[in-house]
Amino acid sequence: MAAGAGGWLDSHRAAYGGMRVCVTGGAGFIGSHLVEALDALGAQVTVIDDLCNGFRESLAGRSGRVRLIEGSVLDADAMSRAAEGASVIFHLAALGSVPRSVEEPMRYHRVNVDGTLAVLEVARRTGARVSYSASSSAYGDTPTLPKVETMRNDPRSPYAVTKLAGEEYGRAYALCYDVAFVGLRYFNIFGPRQREDSQYAAVIPRWAAAIRAGRKPLVYGDGSQTRDFTHVHNAVHANLLAGRATGTLEGETVNIGCGEKYSLLELLAQMNGVLGTSATPDFQPPRAGDVKDSLAAIDAAKRLIGYAPVVTFADGLRSTLLG
Length: 323
Ligand SMILES: NC(=O)c1ccc[n+]([C@@H]2O[C@H](COP(=O)([O-])OP(=O)(O)OC[C@H]3O[C@@H](n4cnc5c(N)ncnc54)[C@H](O)[C@@H]3O)[C@@H](O)[C@H]2O)c1
Fold this sequence. Notes:
By secondary structure, the chain is an alpha/beta fold.
């Protein structure tokens, strides 16, 4: 594994060596990094992914302990086979585009809400623990920083509603059926294998491509907007912690970020530093609906699952751009 893997990964070895686990959406961006880590830890990993936005090649190089079931979490048979014998289901499968969710709310509901219910039903039957990929989009565009889990939710798109519904169902299954469930609200995850058309920290792969092609990176607004850019290994670490947390779990959802914010202009300066370039921004009018600032409070994640970031923004950016 790249980007500073080592101590943090080894800290999970005793828990996951030989463990059977299921990763939904494991051929996607974050899922494929989680599968890589689980494989390196010696786990027996079954991935279920319908490859609608994932790639078989993202699993290339994995050991024989990793198998892919090409199918949907909505297919009860395929989902049952994928979770057979699994102690933990890492549930990452989802449709992820906010604008597309506005065009196709029913499809997003089916995959993201019904799909999560299908996963929870399997967990209810088998006793598997569920680590659920939630989204900071639940907070909407509140100006209050940092964003804390106790704030009122303000989902502003069908996508955000579906991700929040998954959290709420997880909590209900924890309370009604004792399913051990942890939701992880990711903040702007970035890293290798992230596509330029991805929703979240896509500014990084997009600007990298522009700078390398000698074009000016597009900046919507004045570039002072800030984000809690979080390297993907932090999301992987959070999942591994959630999959083996020992405290009482009652369906809580916690923020996963770095707890630091950087402006887009700071990001560009750092990218120029890493790439040895001096690209200047191509300023464009602000985009409607863009959140001005985003920053995670990560105290609850620390309390519940012992989470602290393992890769800094600067190190993560360097390994993503140069790795
Ligand atoms: N990337 C981020 O910054 C971010 C932020 C907040 C939340 N999330 C959540 O994290 C999870 C992973 O995101 P990602 O960025 O890796 O996205 P991704 O699109 O790369 O990965 C999702 C994977 O799920 C698969 N999938 C979709 N529908 C499926 C279905 N019905 N059955 C089986 N597989 C299906 C896709 O083919 C894809 O491989 C998602 O749940 C997303 O909502 C991501």
